[in-house]
Design a protein that fits this description.
Keywords: ATP-binding, Helicase, Hydrolase, Nucleotide-binding. InterPro entries: DNA_helicase_UvrD/REP, P-loop_NTPase, UvrD-like_ATP-bd. This is DNA helicase IV. The chain has about 675 residues and is α/β, with parallel strands linked by helices. The protein folds into five domains: about 140 residues, no CATH class; about 150 residues, Rossmann fold (3-Layer(aba) Sandwich), CATH 3.40.50.300; about 70 residues, no CATH class; about 90 residues, no CATH class; about 140 residues, P-loop containing nucleotide triphosphate hydrolases (Rossmann fold), CATH 3.40.50. The protein has 28 helices and 22 strands. The strands form five sheets. Strands 3-4-2-1-5-6 form a six-stranded mixed sheet, covered by helices on one side. The radius of gyration is 30 Å and the shape is globular. The chain binds adenosine-5'-triphosphate. The site of adenosine-5'-triphosphate has 23 residues, from α4 and α6.
C-alpha cells in the first residue's frame, strides 16, 4: 500500500489535499446525478399518442427508479489511474451536462482492470484507489501503486465484510475479488456452475453476474428476461434488495415452488414418497401417462366442408396421428410438438385433407371454411376419442390415485414398491386434492408436456445442490435457448438426492457440458470458525477442497459444554445483542417455539424467522432448515446434536449452520458433539 494518510479503517486526516479533491469530485458526481434525475423526469412526451405516452412514462419511471435506487449510496467507490487517464468507478454511469463521464459504471469494460489488476499483472494501471465512506461521507482512501509492484493489504475488504449487518444482503461492487469477477463477467453464451464453499460469495457473484449481463446485453435480455431461483422465501427476502441497489429492478426472483405454483399446495409428502416423486424417472412416467391415452383411429371420418362431407380414410388418419406423435417425442422442448398443439394440429390435418379433396374436385374453399371444418362436431368428436384434451393437474391426479393408470405408465420404470408409495386415495375432485410441493413439480412437468413453457435469456439458480431431478427439469424448462448460472456447494446438500458431483444436476438442468468453477476463498466466516466446520468435511464430502478464510479472529469461536441450555443461552444472547449487528439463534426446527419463549421470558426481543418472507428482528430464532444461504454477525448454535438427529443428512445441516457467522460463533452443546468436532 502506498504512503497515504490512511489508517487501516480508511480514515484520512481532514487536511489531506487528495481527500479534498476526491470530496470535490464526489460533490460534482452528486450534482450531475441530480441533474440527470431532473432531465429524466422532464423528458417531454407531448405530441405522441396515448400508447407511446404510456410507454415513455414507463421507461422514464424505470430510469428514475434506477437513478434513485438509493440516494445514500455514494456515486463511486474506487478509481483507476493509467498514468494518462483517471476513471472513478461507481454503481452506474454519471455524466456532466456536456456528456463527459464523471463516473464509469462498474460493469463497463473500462472498469475491468479495477477488479482484475494485480501487482504482477497491472493491466495498464499505475494506481488503484479504493474509498472508505462513513454515513455517506468520504472519510478515507487506500492506494495501491500497482505500477510500482505494490498491492493493498485488504483492510477495506475486511472492514466491508465486518460492517455490522442490519437486515438484507448488501451488494459487493466495491470489493469484488478477481476470482469472483471472472465468473461475474463470463460471456452470456457461457453457462457456469460455481462449486463454492460456505461464504465464498456464490450468491453475491450470481446476483452481480445477473446485473452485469443485463448491462452488457440489455436489449436482448430485456426481451427474454432474467430469472433468479432461490431455495425459499426467507432467502429471497434476504437477497431481494441486491439487484435493485445495483439499478436492476426487472429481474424475477422466485423459488421452484413459485415457478411451479399451478396448484395450491396444502400437504407434505413423507420423505420416502417425496424421493420417488422427485426422481427423474417420473418424467418418463408422466410422458407415458399423457401420451399413452392417444388411441389408434378405428374408422373413417366424414369431415363437413362448405356444405359437403369428405371421407378421410382410417389409414390416413393413422398416419396423421403417428406423424404427430413422433414430433411429440423430439427431445428439444423448443422444437417439440406439445400435446395440446398436437391435438389442434390433428383437427387441422383432417380439415386440410377435406380441403384438398374439394380442390381436387375443382372447388376452392377459403381459409375460414377450412378452420370451420377443423372445429366441426365430427372432427371434435374424432379428436376427443383419439387425442383427448387433457389438463395437467388431472393427469397427475389420475396417475397418483388410479392404480391401473399408474401401472400402465410406470411399467418397467418404477418397481411395485415405488408405485405403492405414489398411490393415495382419490379426492372428491381434482380441485379438492391436497397437493404437495413434489406434486406441484409433477403438475409443472405435465404442463410442460401439454404446452411450451416460456423461457428466460438467463437463469441463476442458487443452492442448486438441493434440487431434485424433477425440480431441475422445471428450471431447465425456463431456460429456452438461454444460459445458466448454477450456484451451490455439494457439502451443504441436505436433500435426499445429494449428488456426489455436479454431472447429474447439470444434465437434469439441461446443460450437461457446463464447466464447474470452484471458489475456495471464504469471505464470510473467520478462519477459526471455518477450520472448525471444515472438520466435518471428510465425513460429508470427502472429495471437496476445504475453503480458506481471508481473515482470522482469535475470539471468533466459542464452543461451550452446558448441562442445561436455558441459562447459558439467554446469557449469551443478551451479551451478543448488546453489540451492533444481527444475531441468529439456530436450533433444530422442533425446538424453535421453546427457544422463542425462553428468550421472550428473559426480556430479549427475539422473533422467529419464518418461510413466509416476513422480516425477522435483530435477534432471529432460526429453524436449522431455514439457515441455508443466510448469515448473521453473531450466531448461537443451540444443541447441535438435536440438529444432527433431526434428519437423515443432519450432519450436512450442521455444517451449514456452523458457517453462518460473520464475526462470532457460539456453540452450546451437552457434551454430545459429533465425533469430528470433539477433541
Ligand atoms: N468480494 C467481496 N467483498 C465483500 N464481501 C464479500 C465479498 N464476497 C463475499 N462477500 C460477503 O461474504 C458473505 C458471503 O457471501 P455469499 O452469501 O454470497 O456466499 P455463499 O458462497 O453464497 O455462501 P453460502 O454457501 O454459505 O450460502 C456475504 O456477506 C458477502 O457480502
Amino acid at each position: 500500500m502506498s504512503a497515504t494518510p490512511t489508517d487501516t479503517t480508511g480514515t484520512a486526516t481532514p487536511t489531506d489535499p487528495v481527500l479534498a479533491a476526491e470530496r470535490a469530485h464526489l460533490g460534482l458526481a452528486g450534482d450531475c446525478l441530480t441533474e440527470m434525475r431532473a432531465a429524466a423526469s422532464a423528458v417531454a412526451d407531448a405530441g405522441v399518442d396515448a400508447w407511446a405516452s404510456e410507454r415513455l412514462g414507463a421507461a422514464r419511471a424505470e430510469r428514475l427508479r434506477a437513478l434513485a435506487a438509493d440516494p445514500h449510496v455514494p456515486p463511486f467507490f474506487g478509481r483507476t489511474d493509467t498514468g494518462t487517464e483517471t476513471f472513478h468507478i461507481g454503481r452506474r454511469h454519471v455524466r456532466d451536462s456536456a456528456g463527459r463521464p464523471v463516473v464509469i459504471d462498474w460493469r463497463a469494460p473500462m472498469s475491468r482492470p479495477f477488479y482484475r489488476a494485480t501487482a504482477a499483472d497491472p493491466q495498464g494501471l499505475v494506481r488503484r484507489r479504493r474509498f472508505g465512506f462513513s454515513g455517506g461521507e468520504l472519510t478515507g482512501y487506500e492506494d495501491e501503486l500497482l505500477g510500482a509492484g505494490e498491492e493493498g493489504d485488504g483492510a477495506l475488504l475486511r472492514a466491508e465484510i465486518e460492517r455490522p449487518r442490519s437486515g438484507p444482503m448488501r451488494d459487493i461492487v466495491a470489493t469484488i475479488q478477481p476470482e469472483q469477477d471472472e465468473i461475474v463477467r463470463a460471456p452470456l453464451t457461457e453457462s457456469v456452475c460455481v462449486q463454492g464453499a460456505p461464504g465464498t460469495g456464490k450468491t453475491a457473484v450470481g446476483l452481480h453476474r445477473a446485473a452485469y449481463l443485463l448491462y452488457t446485453h440489455g436489449g436482448q435480455l430485456a426481451r427474454t428476461g432474467v430469472l433468479v431461483v432461490g431455495p425459499n422465501r426467507a432467502f429471497l427476502r434476504y437477497i431481494e434488495q441486491v439487484l435493485p441497489t445495483l439499478g436492476e429492478v426487472d429481474v424475477e426472483q422466485t423459488t421452484v415452488a413459485g415457478l411451479t405454483a399451478h396448484v395450491p399446495v396444502r400437504a407434505q409428502d413423507r420423505p420416502e414418497v417425496a424421493v420417488v416423486k422427485g426422481d427423474g424417472r417420473m418424467a418418463q412416467v408422466l410422458e407415458r401417462a399423457l401420451w399413452g391415452v392417444i388411441a389408434k383411429p378405428t374408422d373413417d371420418v366424414l369431415v363437413p366442408l362448405a356444405g359437403r362431407r369428405y371421407r378421410v380414410p382410417v389409414e390416413r388418419l393413422k398416419r396423421y396421428v403417428d406423424d404427430l406423435r413422433r414430433r411429440g417425442r423430439v427431445p428439444d422442448d423448443q422444437q417439440r410438438l406439445h400435446y395440446a398443439a398436437g391435438r389442434e394440429r390433428l383437427a387441422l390435418l383432417l380439415a386440410e385433407d377435406a380441403r384438398r379433396q374439394k380442390e381436387e374436385g375443382g372447388g376452392s374453399p377459403d381459409d375460414a371454411e377450412t378452420r370451420r371444418a377443423a372445429r366441426s362436431a365430427e372432427v371434435r368428436a374424432f379428436c376427443d376419442a383419439v387425442w383427448p384434451a387433457r389438463d395437467a393437474a388431472a393427469v397427475v391426479a389420475a396417475l397418483l390415485t388410479d392404480p391401473a393408470v399408474l401401472a400402465r405408465a410406470a411399467r418397467g420404470v418404477l418397481d411395485e414398491a415405488e408405485q405403492a408409495l405414489l398411490l393415495r386415495p382419490a379426492a372428491r375432485s381434482v380441485r379438492a386434492t391436497a397437493w404437495t410441493p413434489a406434486d406441484a413439480v409433477l403438475v409443472d412437468e405435465a404442463a410442460g408436456l401439454l404446452g411450451r413453457t416460456a423461457g428466460y435469456g438467463h437463469v441463476v439458480v442458487d443452492e442448486a445442490q438441493d434440487l431434485s431431478p424433477m425440480q431441475c427439469r422445471a428450471v431447465a424448462r425456463r431456460l429456452a435457448a438461454g444460459s445458466l448460472t448454477v450456484l451451490g456447494d455439494l457439502a451443504q446438500a441436505t436433500g435426499p438426492w445429494s449428488p456426489a458431483d455436479w454431472a447429474s444436476t447439470l444434465a437434469d438442468l439441461g446443460r450437461p457440458r457446463t464447466a464447474v468453477r470452484p471458489l475456495t476463498r471464504g469471505y464470510r466466516v473467520p478462519g477459526e470458525v471455518l477450520d472448525y466446520a471444515n472438520r466435518l468435511l471428510p465425513v460429508i464430502a470427502p472429495g471437496l477442497e476445504p475453503a480458506t478464510a481471508v481473515r482470522r479472529d482469535p475470539g471468533a469461536l466459542r464452543v461451550r459444554p452446558v448441562t442445561d441450555l436455558a441459562g447459558p443461552l439467554t446469557d449469551v444472547v443478551r451479551e451478543l445483542a448488546a453489540a451492533p449487528g444481527s444475531v441468529g439463534v439456530v436450533c433444530a426446527d422442533g425446538a424453535v417455539p421453546a427457544v422463542v419463549r425462553l428468550l421472550a421470558d428473559a426480556g430479549l426481543p427475539a422473533t422467529e424467522l419464518a418461510d413466509d418472507g416476513s422480516a425477522a428482528g435483530r435477534v432471529a430464532v432460526v429453524p436449522a432448515t431455514l439457515a441455508k444461504g443466510l448469515e448473521f454477525d453473531a450466531v448461537v448454535v443451540a444443541d447441535p446434536a438435536a440438529i444432527v438427529a433431526a434428519e437423515p443428512r443432519g450432519i450436512n445441516r450442521l455444517y451449514v449452520v456452523l458457517t453462518r457467522a460473520v464475526s462470532t460463533l457460539v456453540v452450546l452443546h451437552r457434551d454430545d458433539l459429533p465425533a469430528p468436532l470433539t477433541g
